[in-house]
Design a protein that fits this description.
Layout (H helix, E strand, L loop, with lengths): L1 H18 L32 E3 L2 E3 L9 E3 L6 E3 L3
Antiparallel strand pairs: 1-4, 2-3
């Protein structure tokens, strides 16, 4: 197993040396929308794909961050992304 891992690491290292390590794609390439759940349903990618909140309420997320998640009661609550 360690021999295979060593060969894999060597192959990746050689590939990076050959390409100069510049073959990286940006995480934002082709990004359509970015919703960071920071108190609203606005698209922060700059593409203007904002959401409209109907009935859902802001709440604390699983990590204890206030206003970083939405609570849905199951009755007519939604976030619409259609303009």
């Amino acid at each position: 197993m360690f021999k295979r891992l060593g060969i894999f690491v060597l192959a990746v290292t050689l590939l990076l040396c050959i390409t100069g390590g510049e073959a990286r794609a940006s995480i934002t390439d082709g990004l359509v929308a970015y919703y960071p759940f920071n108190g609203n349903a606005n698209d922060e990618s700059g593409n203007g794909n904002n959401g409209t909140v109907y009935g859902a309420t802001l709440t604390t997320d699983r990590n204890g961050n206030a206003n970083s998640a939405y609570s849905f009661d199951g009755h007519q609550c939604r976030i619409s992304f259609i303009s």
